[in-house]
Structure formats: C-alpha cells, structure tokens
Amino acid sequence: MSEEKSFAYTYTSPERRSVSSQSTESPVQEEENSAVKHGGTGRVVKAVLWGTGSCLLFGLGLSCVLEWAAYIPGIACGALGIAGMAAVPAVYKRKSN
What we know:
The chain has 97 residues and is mainly alpha-helical. The chain has one domain (19-93). The chain has helices spanning 19-24, 27-37, 40-66, 71-86, 88-93. The longest helix is centred in the middle third of the chain and has 27 residues, at 40-66. The chain is rod-shaped.
C-alpha cells in the first residue's frame, strides 16, 4: 500500500549550462584550466626563479661587504640583485611567445 513517490526535473537555459554539468566541474579545475590556457603557469615559474636568483645575488653582495670587506664587488652584486628584484613584476607581466 505504500507507494514511493519521486520527483525529477531537468533545468536548462540557453544562456547558461545545465545544472548537472555545473555540478561536475569544481571551481579549482576551472582556475587551473584557465591558467594553463593563458600561459600563466610559465610566467609564475619564470618570475619566482628570477626573484630567487636576484635575492641570492643580493645576499652574495651583502656577504661580500659585511664578511669579506670586499666593497667594490659587494656593492656591484648588491646593486644587480636589487635591480633584479625590482624587475620581477615586469618579468611576470611579460607575455611569452
């Protein structure tokens, strides 16, 4: 005597994807896909490597001046390191071919 009642519906719109297809993709997957499509991953890696190298160069210059009293090479390395760190935003914004 007990009948199971169920209700099912399908929603679609010409302007949007259907609800069922939206639930299968997570926002994280969409962000990763868009970063790969636009080449964002390579730009980030280049900028991080450029910044890390610049910081190491600045540290070498700092060590030259403070520990070894080599002022001329230390100031030159430090200045190149600071210039490299200042150029990181430009490296990140530059579009690679």
